[in-house]
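Q: Convert this sequence to structure tokens.
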Amino acid sequence: MLNRVALCAVALALCLGATCLSIMAQDEKPAEKPDAEPTKEAVKRSEVPEKFKEMEAPDLKDADRIAAGKKAYASSCAGCHGEAGKGDGKYAAKMDPKPTDLTTAEFQDAVTDQYILWRIKTGDEGYAGEGKSKMKSKGSASDAELWELTAFVRSLKPAKVEILSHDEMEGVMDDFKAEWKSVQAATTAKDKDKGVAAADKIAELSDKLMGYDGNVRGGDHDGEKVRDQADWKKFVEDFKNAAAEYSKLAKDGKWDKAGEEQQKIGDGCGNCHDVYKKKRR
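A:
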């Protein structure tokens, strides 16, 4: 009877012919400080072969490519790396080396796009070190499919969050207002290019919203928090997803469904405005 790790390997081979991305950590070294941050050097990686280094990556931020990669990931990688990519899949506990947390900045900054594709395609060749369990890829997937999966992995990179000043937050909201008007106009006119561009900009601006930490700055309520940060994060993610879905539907010319997502974007704009403006009351 196959053990759970073997079952994971078989599932990956059948679904995509690709292995989970797994990187083996070096033996731990004493940190100089108890709270020292992980470094890129804490993970040992093999050199990417030249034929992969030379590959030109497509647009890995394309919403359709990411969506396709997400489906492949769910069937091929989630069992090991976890649904959210945090290395906590149902088979992870018995694996050696442990599946990598794909959502950390340390991992994302330490590898190239070509490295990710190479690791998916070749499986055990990417493992550094010896005497560890390895999952060998069987079968094959097209480069287009592998880039889709790579795009999804890249989408897991955490956005760099910088706390916004009052003026910066006001600027972000002004930009939102302008792009929201563009979305409305594009939907009415069924202007695909304008709608996609505006929605993509809104999704981009959503990352900046995480820089609002919920704290009031200045005035009689200086220092008060008007919104829980975890709740705010979910709100921003839902808002961003609505913009991304609108972009996809507008690109496909599905204006009825795009109109539904437009309403979600509008609700998000209103909610953001109401919450943020509480600090002025």
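The chain is about 55% helix and 0% strand.
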